[in-house]
Amino acid sequence: MMRIIRxxxxxxxxxxxxxxxxxxxxxxxxDPYDGGLTPGAAVGDSxxxxxxxxxxxSTILCVGRNYADHAAEFGNPVPKEPLIFLKPPSSxxxxxxxxxxxxxxxRLDPEAELVVVIGRRGRRVxxxxxxxxxxxxxxxxxxxxxxxxxxxxxxxxxxxxxxFCPLGPxxxxxxxxxxxRVTCAVNGELRQDGRTRDFIFGIPELIAYISAFTTLVPxxxxxxxxxxxxxxxxxxxxxxxxxxxxGELSNPVVAESA
Length: 258
Prior knowledge:
Blueprint: E1 3-8, E2 14-19, E3 24-31, E4 36-45, E5 51-52, E6 60-64, H1 68-73, E7 83-87, E8 92-93, E9 99-101, E10 108-109, E11 112-118, E12 134-141, E13 144-145, H2 146-151, H3 156-160, E14 165-172, E15 181-186, E16 189-195, H4 203-211, E17 221-223, E18 238-243, E19 247-255
Parallel strand pairs: 6-17, 8-14, 9-19
Antiparallel strand pairs: 1-2, 1-5, 1-14, 2-3, 3-4, 6-7, 10-13, 11-12, 11-17, 12-14, 15-16, 15-18, 18-19
């Protein structure tokens, strides 16, 4: 198993690293998608080094209503084929980063998700070959301005504000996503709770469907959908996404400044 991270250097830049099982952060050389990373010297531990979002995707592909119970809780039908939308890269936030509650919105919802990280270029990939494109997995929060999402014909604005895509804290390259628990807690109170075995569309099917219309490249991510239990948050709350066996991702909510 290798847990790949990006961390902030003392000079304020970003660098690839790896996380040892004991929590030691090591600087790494190389390209994670092309030749791999070579761990180097220890630079601290995960409590003293600021971890950044562990990926810098050119495309953030998201899957709507991929749990039947989540579709039902908002009165929506189960989709007959994957419901795909995009978030802009400017929406990415890292572990512990503040998520801004925009003044334009009256309701902000967290959405806990397992995130697939693509490691190989692919176009028109068959389902039986789809997992060959997968590099690893991380955690994500598809933060949503629910009132704006409902008011607009498309979801771009409601899903795409700056800070609306927390990711991290690492990419696990040896993780089995077939039947794991996905949850979201707010201030320690469990809200969302589901298992990946309940996906309407599994990961191979999603990769095949998406690659039929767009080329996937290393570093792109697929957010696989959120389980039921969605409820709003307010400034001062802390959202914690967890995926069983993978880790936790926490972010505080703050009000938009004037």
